[in-house]
Predict the structure.
Amino acid sequence: MGVKSRIPRVKAVLAREPLPADDPRCLFDADVPPPPAPRGHDLLVRIEAVSVNPLDCKVRMDTYGGYRADGGERILGWDAAGKVEAVGEEATLFRPGDAVYYAGSILRPGSNAELQLVDERIVGPKPATLDFAHAAALPLTSITAYEAIVDRMGVDAQGADAGKTLLVIAGAGGVGSMAIQIGRQLGLRVVATASRSESAKWCRELGASHVIDPAQPLRESLRSLGMEAADFILNCADLDRYWLDMAEAVRPQGSLCSIVANAAPIDLKAIQRKCARFAFEAMFTRSSLRTPDMIEQHRLLRRVADWVDTGAIRTTLTQKLGPIDAANLRAAHRKVESRRMIGKVVVAGWPARLPQ
């Protein structure tokens, strides 16, 4: 009898039930079939490192728009760095062997697997000066911060708004950390909120000109610094808590943006008299709705990589775990859910395979 050929499998970490992060059943190791060969604009990427964001925890717990509503198994993960293994017939931006980083699509299998398919138009070249772990900390938060500042609040991408004030609520978190740095690169004076001495120190190290106490009224804190109001306000924490405070602190004809949803109705009349602009930022809009400008995420990730490689901004990795397995991903989820994270937690490398 001939020897039966083995069907290739790849390592992955799956989520099945919406369970707490300290429950071993919430994330588990598995060997799964590899993705199909890439078609169209897709890249097949071999994952080297991933980062965990609040989004991962929300999808695990099925509280993010019903993306696990069918109750089936799902590969989570929306931050990755790795190498291109193969490309689709329409792909022109990358070739096999290229090192890349990206945040993927909420509608597709995630990065917590050895191999992943991703559209090249939302992928950037990995910063050459960073290893895979340090690069994996950047994509989702960089995209979110850049889109919030430039696309949603209208800050000029070439620096024409230099000297204006950006207030970042929750500056020490993942998105806040990138918003401080990107704001500075666009010439803005950045003020951040932070409630602990270590998070305030982190914000200053990233370039915040001032750090204020989020427990105090925002406008009073700005006035104590000699500022009448903020031109731009980015909320990375709690829209319900800060909405009226933001409306009071924004200048007339200024701009507000939130990366978090409101639980209760918000009163838009609070900004009507000022003719202030308000927008939500959701970095998956382009990829999930396949907007005609999807490639803007490739372009902004390339710009962020250039800033990193010239030393203008830095990675926000503060904690690294390894290898990539269920135990370490559960530990990373617990760190994120503690709400005391400064910067980002990354999980890198795959466990060695046992001899066949």
Summary: The two ends are 20 Å apart (CA to CA).
